[in-house]
Automatic annotation (TrEMBL):
EC number: 2.3.1.234
Cross-referenced SUPFAM superfamilies: Actin-like ATPase domain
EC class (word): transferase
Organism, scientific name: Streptomyces lancefieldiae
Organism domain of life: Bacteria
Descriptive protein name: tRNA (Adenosine(37)-N6)-threonylcarbamoyltransferase complex dimerization subunit type 1 TsaB
Entries under InterPro entries matching the protein: ATPase_NBD, Gcp-like_dom, T6A_TsaB
């Protein structure tokens, strides 16, 4: 097994290689505006670090969000393209699940990432491998009663200490955590879903109202 994992659902552009036992190379850079520019060089970098070529990859793991439309689609389209070019399966893993796995907490806790517009993408977890709720997008104040007293991880939690007073790192997801989680599930015989994006809301870019289409006569 050689899994290539990547995620662009948060400001982190993160890539890792997992050989079925452990992570053998990884790269993470935080830049919310350069996902498309940074992702492929990061893939090249981890392959070079591992001394491997792309055709050695036997599967691709992609973080499916939730995340903003523009950043998220960079990673998903890249993963799908690699899968088609190499003829290997592409597996989707929820980005929040990757953060929960990396947090390695016991007992109930919350994962929250920054959704912008003064909102967070979030979910509750029983432990680092068990999600209790579907991912959602809400204003922190609107979910305060549902997360009260719980530890929290992720950039969204760190941004809103009034709602998440027990917030701590990790701030962003790592492809290393996604790869380890995916490898663990695959080794246990679990089928991972296809990489369908979790947008949860419409993209920021909208067609203006009263837009007039001009066509030649």
């Amino acid at each position: 097994m050689l899994l290539l994992a990547l995620d662009t659902a948060t400001p982190a552009v993160t890539v890792a290689l997992h050989d079925g036992t452990h992570v053998i190379a990884s790269s993470s850079q935080v830049d919310a505006r350069r996902h498309g520019e940074l992702l492929l060089p990061a893939v090249d970098r981890v392959l070079a670090e591992a001394g491997l070529k792309l055709d050695a990859v036997t599967g691709v793991v992609a973080g499916i969000g939730p995340g903003p439309y523009t950043g998220l689609r960079v990673g998903l389209m890249t993963a799908e393209t690699f899968g088609l070019a190499l003829g290997v399966p592409v597996h989707g893993v929820c980005t929040l699940d990757g953060l929960a796995y990396a947090a390695d907490l016991e007992g109930p806790f919350v994962v929250a990432t920054d959704a912008r517009r003064k909102e967070v993408y979030w979910a509750r977890y029983a432990d680092s491998r068990t999600r209790l709720t579907d991912p959602a997008v809400d204003r922190p104040a609107d979910i305060a009663d549902r997360v009260a007293g719980l530890p929290a991880v992720g950039a969204g939690a760190l941004l809103y200490p009034d709602t998440f007073p027990r917030a701590h790192e990790p701030e962003h997801v790592s492809a290393s955590a996604l790869a380890c989680l995916a490898a663990e599930k695959l080794a246990a015989g679990e089928e991972l879903p296809a990489p369908r994006p979790l947008y949860l809301r419409r993209p920021d870019a909208q067609v203006p109202k009263n837009y007039k289409v001009v066509t030649p006569k």
